[in-house]
């Protein structure tokens, strides 16, 4: 997907040479500023919807431009998920499912005994 500039158009590089990205989002190409990456803040994240390709869409009233963003070229974003907490949650869900399965098996066994008991008393 193409990056959007602060003017709202797709960012297009004019050279095949490496570019640099400054902390404020300015793209430097051949030593000259080409454009500035548009960075926005969503005042109501719940109002956003997913469009095709995993792109977010939000009403324009909930979008505001960030005047002084901090962008780092070549940096990796850390995960916002704790793998330990997620693993614990999965194990808890698995145990609850196993408990439910055992309850259904006990109920099925009891129903089988009741049917068998009625079958023995009804035939005499």
Q: How is this structure best described in words?
A:
The protein has about 120 residues and is an alpha+beta fold. About 30% of the residues lie in helices and about 15% in strands. The protein has 1 helix and 7 strands. The chain has one helix at about 85-120; strands at about 20, 25-30, 30-35, 40, 50, 55, 65. The strands form 3 sheets. A 3-stranded antiparallel β-sheet has the order 1-2-3, with no helix packed on it. It has a two-stranded antiparallel sheet with strand order 4-7. Strands 5-6 form a two-stranded antiparallel sheet. The mean pLDDT is about 85.
Strand content is 15-25%
Shape: elongated
User: Could you say which structural class the secondary elements and strand pairing correspond to?
Assistant: alpha+beta
Number of helices: 1
- Computed over alpha carbons, the radius of gyration is 30 Å
Q: Which residues sit in consecutive blocks of at least 5 with pLDDT less than 50?
A: none
Number of strands: 7
Main beta sheet strand tally, sense and closure: 3 strands, antiparallel
- Lateral arrangement of strands in the main beta sheet: 1-2-3
Helical fraction: 25-40%
Mean pLDDT: 87
Cα distance, first to last residue? Answer: 78 Å
Q: H/E element string?
A: EEEEEEEH
Summarize the structure.
By secondary structure, this protein is of the alpha+beta class. 32% of the residues lie in helices and 17% in strands.
